[in-house]
Amino acid sequence: MARKRSGALGKYWGYLLFVIVITAWLTQALGPVGLIALSALTALFFLFRAPVWCGAVTREGDFCRKNARGLLMGCSYQQHKWQKLKLAVVPPKWRQLNKGLWVGPEKSVATIAALGSGLSAVAAVITLIFKLD
Ligand SMILES: [Zn+2]
Questions:
Q1: Rg, Å, the chain Cα set
Q2: 55 CA to centre of ligand 1 in angstroms
Q3: From ligand 1's centre to the CA of 34, what distance in Å?
Q4: Which ranges in the chain belong to alpha helices (H)?
Q5: How far is the CA of 120 from the centre of ligand 1 (A)?
Q6: What is d(CA 119, CA 40) in angstroms, rounded to the nearest whole number?
Q7: Do residues 63 and 55 make contact, with C-beta atoms less than 8 angstroms apart?
Q8: 38 CA to middle of ligand 1, Å?
Q9: pLDDT 10s digits, 28-76
Q10: Domain map (residue ranges) of the chain
Q11: pTM of this structure
Q12: Distance 70 CA to ligand 1 centre (A)
């Protein structure tokens, strides 16, 4: 049981971190520097580590349902990795990338958390700038 719990924690620690980021905002327990660090780490987790579906578009026009690590990483197919990287760096393709971000409930949660922690990092930077005045 204990081993199972630590395995889940190894996979899902970013979700825990996201909760901590929200709590830190609500309680103002952390300074802006701490918030920036935590938010950035959380965003990185969801972009590159979170266990989600691949979501690349297959030749059948469907979304790939294989497991992948992170919103910007594809599954074990090399083609899917390239496809997602290409979508991420070409602005006209962002709509297509966006579609793949909402495949399945787990991925939607991960996408929202990634956006939330990204916004949180930006907000913390703004707070820091105003505090320096
Ligand atoms: Zn795939």
A1: 17
A2: 6
A3: 35
A4: 2-27, 32-48, 78-89, 94-100, 105-132
A5: 29
A6: 10
A7: yes
A8: 29
A9: 989 999 999 999 999 999 999 999 999 999 989 899 999 999 999 999 9
A10: 2-132
A11: 0.86
A12: 12
Tokens encoding 120: 């949180």
Per the listing, tokens 């962002």 go with 94
H or E segment and range at residue 62: none
Q: Output the CA torsion 49→52→55→59 (10° steps).
A: 100
CA of 57 to the centre of ligand 1 (A): 8
Q: How far is the CA of 80 from the centre of ligand 1 (A)?
A: 5
Exposed, middle or buried, 64 (CB in 10 Å: 0-12/13-18/19+)?
Answer: buried
What is the Å distance from ligand 1's center to 29 Cα? 40
- Greatest CA separation found in the chain? 56
Model pLDDT, residue 131? 81
Backbone torsions φ then ψ of 2, nearest 5 degrees? -65, -40
